[in-house]
Specification:
The N terminus is likely disordered. The protein has 675 residues and is of the alpha/beta class. The longest helix is centred in the first third of the chain and has 14 residues. The chain has 23 helices and 33 strands. The chain has 5 domains: 104 residues, Rossmann fold, CATH 3.40.50; 118 residues, Rossmann fold, CATH 3.40.50.10090; 103 residues, Tetrapyrrole methylase, N-terminal domain (Cobalt-precorrin-4 Transmethylase, domain 1); 99 residues, Methyltransferase, Cobalt-precorrin-4 Transmethylase, Domain 2, CATH 3.30.950; 197 residues, Vaccinia Virus protein VP39 (Rossmann fold, 3-Layer(aba) Sandwich), CATH 3.40.50. Strands 25-24-23-26-27-31-28 form a 7-stranded mixed beta sheet, with helices on both faces. Strands 1-4-3-2-5-6 form a 6-stranded mixed beta sheet, sandwiched between helices. The chain is elongated and about 105 Å long. The two termini are 60 Å apart.
Amino acid sequence: MSGKSAGSDRLCVFAGTTEGRELVALLAGQPVAVTACVATEYGETLLPLQENLTVSAGRLTEAEMEDLFRRERFDCVVDATHPYAAAVTDNIAASCGAAGVEYIRLLRGGEAAPGDAFFAEDTAAAVEFLADTEGTVLLTTGSKELGRYAALPGFAERVYARVLPMPASLASCEAAGLPPARILAMQGPFSKEMNVAMLRMTGARWLVTKDTGGTGGFQEKAEAAKEAGASLLVVGRPPQRQGLDFSGTVALLCRKFGLTLRPRVTLAGIGPGSGPGMTGEVRRAIREADCLIGARRMLEAAEAAPHQKTVAAIAPEAIAAAIRERRECRRFTVLLSGDAGFYSGAKKLLPLLDGCEVEVLPGLSSLSVLCARLGTSYEDVYCVSCHGRDVDPVVDVASHRRMFILVGGEGGMAGLCRTLTEAGLGHVRVSVGERLGYPEERITTGTAAELVERTFDSLSAALIENDWAAPFTPGLPDELFQRGRGADGAVVPMTKREVRAMALSCLGLTEDAVCWDIGAGTGSVSIEMALQARRGRVYAIEKKAAALDLLRENTGRFHTRNVEIVAGSAPEACRDLPAPTHAFIGGSSGNLRELIALLLEKNPAVRIVAAAVSLETAAELTAAMEEFDFAVKEAVALSAARSRTAGSYHLMIAQNPVYLFTLQREGTKFYGQAL
C-alpha cells in the first residue's frame, strides 16, 4: 500500500485500464478517499500522485478482496478492469456481495470491426484458425494466454508477440518458447502509424487482437492492418456484466458523494476535410467523447457513434454554453477545422472554458495541405485570414513574395482576384485549393487576371506568389502622391518624405494600431500609417474641401482601404471617433491644447507625434510637455536639403526646418527596451 487516505466517504477503484486510471485522475482533490487497486507495480507508476489516493499494487485473490472491502469499509467499489479479465470481475462482484459493499461495473465501449475481418470465439478457436493459414502472425493479445498460442505449428518461427515491458510478460514469452528476437516489449497506446510500422517490420500477414474498445486501440489496429495489407483476426469479447459507461459511472459517483467534477474538453483540429486527414490522437479523442461539438460538416466527418451526443455549434459562446448545459457528459471533443492553432476558433473559446480540464490537439492546416499538393514549402509564406476580419489583400500581396490567404463566402475567391487585378496586381500567380481533403478536392493555378471570371467553392484557400513584391519602408517618394491647389490657389500642404519617415519612426506603430492623422492634407502620412498598421485603422481628419478630394484620390491610388476620411475641424470632428493608440498632429488650426486634452481623454496612453513649422507652435508644444505631465517628451529639430541641378552644377536647396515632438504619458518599448 502507498499514499494516504482523507475524507469520510471511501471509494475503491480497480484501475488497471485506461478508463480506471482516468477515473482516478478525475477524482483528484475531491472530498472522497480513493483506494486504487492495480495488479502490478508498473500499473502503480501510471497513476497520478494525489493527496486523497491510496494505491494497492499486487494481484488479489477473492478472499483478499473481501478482507480489504470489510477492513476499509468502502461505500462502493468501481470495477474498471479489462473486459477480458472475466475471472477478476467475477471475484470483485462476489467479494462486494459478501462484504455488503455496492458494486459498480464500468463498461468499455466496443468498436465496429471492418467487414473483411475474421473472428474466433476464443483463444483455442484462434489457434485452430491460424493453423490452417500461412504467413507471419503479430499477436497483440497480451502475455497471459501466450502459452496457449504455443500449440500453433511453427510457433517460434512464425509468431511475433507484443507484450508489456515487464518481467512477468517476458517470463511468459520465455515459458512459451518464444525467442527474444520475436518479442516486442512496449507500452501503449499505439497509433495507427506505429502499428503499420510494426506490421511492416515483422512482415506479418496476420494481426491478432481482441476487441479492446476505443481506449484499447482497436480502431488503430484495424486501420493499420488495412493499410499494411494484413488480415485482421478478432478474438471474440466475453459477455460483460451489466454496468455503466464512463460518463454514467462519473454521474453516479457525483450524485452519491456530492462531487463536482471538472468536465474534460478536447479542442481537436480535424484537418481541412474528411476523416482520412485526421491524426490518430484526434480520432481517439472523437471516439472517447461523450459529446461532440462543431459545425455540421465537421460532425459528419467525425461519424459519431450511436451513444454519442452531438451539438451543431460554431460560435465560441454557443460551444461553451453547450458544455455547461450538458452536465450528464464528462468528456467533450470540440471539432475545429484545420489546425487548432491556425486561424481557429480555439483562440476565442479557450478563455470561456474556465473550470474545465482542457487539452488542445493540433491538426493539418489548410496551409500545409495546399503547399503539399503544390509540392512547395511554406516556411516563408505570410498568412492572412479574411474570415471575420477587415483585411486589405492588396497591401499584403504587394509587399510579400508569397502569401497564403483564407477567403470565405460565395464569390470570395473570384472577388479577391478582381480586387488584385483592379489594383494593378493581375500578374500575380494564384493557386486555389477548393475543398481540400475531400474527394472533390480541386487545385487551380493561374494569374489573378485569368481567374477573375472563375467560380470557386466557398471552402477555398489560396497561395499567392508575387515575384515583384517589395516590402514597405517608411518615407515613400513625394512624387507618388497627387498634389493640388485649393480654390484660393494655395498648394494643399503635404508632409515631406524626410519628415514623414522620422514621424513614423517616432510613432512606433503596431500592425493593429488605431491612428488619428489630424490635418491630413494630401494624406501622405495617413497612407503610410495605413501601410504600416495594416491590421488597424486610420482616421484622416481634414477640413479643407480641396484636401479632401486629394485624400480620396491618394487613398484610392494606394488601395489603403483601412483609411477612413473624416471631414471637419479638430477637435469637434474627432469626438465620436474610436480611441486612438497613436496620433499625428500635422495641423491644429490653433486648437493644439484642446486636441491634446481630447487625445488623452480618449486614451491616457496614446502616443502623440506633433509637427511644428512655426516657433509659436513649437512654444505651445513645449508648454504642453509640462502641463500634461508626459513621461515621454522628446523634441527633434529636422533640417534637410535636396539637390538641384544648375547647369553642370548640383546645388543643395534647404527645406524649411521642422520640429517634431513625441509625447506619451506612459513609457513604451522598442526592441524590448523601455523608453
